[in-house]
Amino acid sequence: MLDEIFNDTKEHMQKSIVALRRDYSTLRSGSVTTNIIDHIKVDYYGTPTAINQVANVIATDATTITITPWEKTMLNPVGKAIQEANIGVNPNNDGSVIKLFFPPMTTDQRKEIVKQAKGMTDKAKVAIRNIRKDANDKVKKLNKDKAINDDESKKAMDQIQKFTDEHVTECDTVFAKKEQDILKV
């Protein structure tokens, strides 16, 4: 019973870390990555579709992303979707490809992105603490139902707190690495 709670708790906390890393991938750091446009959807025959599902997306250098739609008719909808997403650049459509030219980031922009990353980290920590609360509630219920005694309950909650501390520390480590990456010129 307790092992199942421990395994579920660790698994869910680890998923929070994975989600945090995925969120970080949408932030711009020293050089641009194609992940910046992952969340942008384009209308593809009435269905909201990710741009990388209707076009070839390549980071050609540290400041440029090139998007080559598989169908020429998708050039304008892709350009419009990027413009509406307000990612900080205007799409340049040359009739066959769309290029996104990202200017080098200023110090203020870097600090702003670090703030966004910090917010994402804080959300992940809240999620981890909520997982801890759910796990502790399950342990308390087992104790109340007399499935475990008070000592086992205390040990289980201590173990859950240990998992929580480990994952919160991992969040801080991941944030520190991302912050370095963002602030590196």
Features:
two-stranded antiparallel sheet, 15% strand, elongated, 2 domains, Topoisomerase I, Chain A, domain 4, 6 strands, alpha+beta, 4 helices, Gyrase A, domain 2, 4-stranded antiparallel β-sheet, 185 residues
- Strand order across the largest sheet: 3-4-6-5
Radius of gyration: 22 Å
Write down how many β-strands occur, each being a DSSP E stretch of 2 or more residues: 6
How much of the polypeptide forms β-strand, as a percent range? 5-15%
CATH topology of the largest domain: Topoisomerase I, Chain A, domain 4
Query: How many distinct helices?
Result: 4
Q: What's the story with the biggest beta sheet? A: 4 strands, antiparallel
* Class by alpha and beta content: alpha+beta
Summed up, the domain count is 2
How many angstroms does the end-to-end distance come to? 51 Å
Task: Kindly provide the name of the CATH class of the largest domain.
Answer: Mainly Alpha
Summarize this structure briefly:
With 185 residues, this protein is of the alpha+beta class. 57% of the residues lie in helices and 15% in strands. The chain contains four helices and six strands.
Walk me through the structure:
The protein is α+β, with helices and mostly antiparallel strands. The chain folds into 2 domains: 2-25 and 106-183, Orthogonal Bundle (Topoisomerase I, Chain A, domain 4), CATH 1.10.132.20; 34-101, Gyrase A, domain 2. Helices cover 57% and strands 15% of the residues. It is built from 4 helices and 6 strands, in the order H-E-E-E-E-H-E-E-H-H. The chain has a 4-stranded antiparallel β-sheet, with helices on one face. 23% of the residues are buried.
